[in-house]
Amino acid sequence: IERTFIAVKLDGVQRGLVSEIIGRFERKGYKLVAIKSVVPSRPIAEAHYGDLRARPFFKGLVDYMTSGRAPVIAMVWEGPDVIRQGRRIIGATNPMDAQPGSIRGDFTLTVGRNIIHGSDSFESATFEIGLWFDPEEVY
Ligand code: ATP
Ligand code: MG
């Protein structure tokens, strides 16, 4: 069975959308195998977004994620095709391209405040689960 890393980012926490987001994955039938509330350290946030290091918004993104204005809800979800289906449940990166019915399509307006993260491949899921969680924290 497949696993993916999903995080409600601090804007999603501040807006009170944690239960809405968890509910969508639960009602689809996926299984929650790890969850914690955490303010990521700078090294973790930089590693998490390592593929975006050269982008102009990288520093602002890492500053935001590590700001501590609210925690991130880090999760691991398990089930058939959960990496790809999770990305569909979340919707396109830019909320203006995200379909109604997706999380970003239903709740967000700007790419810098798109409330949720989901791994985009098996490789990134494996890396991100290991980055955010110790093995004993995952069921
Ligand atoms: P995520 O990795 O968060 O699930 P994604 O895979 O859809 O999102 P990425 O290209 O990996 O998109 O970008 C990671 C995050 O960086 C986005 O979720 C968004 O918060 C931020 N980001 C991406 N592009 C921009 C941009 N042009 N301006 C500001 N922030 C951006
Ligand atoms: Mg991404």
Structural class by SSE content:
alpha+beta
- Count of helical segments? 7
> Taking Cα atoms only, what radius of gyration do you get, to the nearest Å?
14 Å
Give the strand line-up of the largest sheet.
Answer: 2-3-1-4
Q: What is the residue-mean pLDDT, rounded to a whole number?
A: 98
Low-confidence stretches: none
Shape: globular
Number of strands: 4
Element string (H = helix, E = strand): EHHEHHEHHEH
Largest sheet: 4 strands, antiparallel
Distance from N terminus to C terminus (CA atoms, Å) equals 13 Å
Give the distinct bound molecules. Answer: adenosine-5'-triphosphate, magnesium ion
Q: Quaternary state, please? A: single chain
Helix content: 40-55%
Sheet-strand content, in percent, reads 15-25%
